[in-house]
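Render this sequence as a predicted structure.
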Amino acid sequence: STNVYSDMSELQSNSEHAQKSTISDILTSDKHKVKGQWDK
């Protein structure tokens, strides 16, 4: 039963990391879009 708790915490940390990386990807892609508009 202890494995269930460790698996859950691992899943949670993985999903949190995925959300953070997705947000950072969105932010960096927005910066690239803005930069591209400035270059025009």
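Summary. The chain has a mean pLDDT of 77. The CA atoms of residues 25 and 31 lie 10 Å apart.
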